[in-house]
Design brief:
Elements: E1 2-4, E2 10-12, H1 19-31, H2 45-53, H3 57-70, H4 90-102, H5 108-116
Antiparallel strand pairs: 1-2
Length: 117
């Protein structure tokens, strides 16, 4: 479902702004006097660029900061973050059922500790 931001640009919440569009925004900031090394931007630049590209001012600021820190403006990865949790194997599920049958009042933390030892 498409939404409209305060500047009238249609967007879809599940689709990030492309890296090319982000870099166009950043290049415009540089053309208007933005300095990557000091991150200094002339007063009113974020608002002007936001209106021009029909994105919000906080988005423009975030793109600029990301560019200054990393040199790129890649969209964030969507979905499950790297390193977040492990999936249980069939053996783990079997063990959990065994623990719960033997001791129904067992707390989640205790189950985890038993699995990890």
């Amino acid at each position: 479902m498409a939404h409209k931001n305060i500047y009238g640009r249609s967007y879809n919440r599940s689709v990030s702004i492309s890296e090319d569009y982000r870099m166009s925004i950043v290049n415009t900031i540089e053309e208007l006097g933005g300095d990557k090394t000091s991150m200094v931007v002339p007063h009113g630049t974020f608002a002007k660029v936001a209106r021009q590209f029909k994105v919000t001012k906080p988005s423009v600021k975030n793109f600029w900061e990301e560019y200054c820190y990393t040199g790129t403006c890649q969209p964030m990865k969507r979905g499950r973050p790297m390193g977040s949790g492990r999936k249980l194997t069939e053996d783990d599920v079997y063990l959990i059922k065994e623990f719960k049958e033997k001791q129904p009042s067992l707390m989640t933390k205790e189950v985890r500790d038993k699995l990890l030892t």
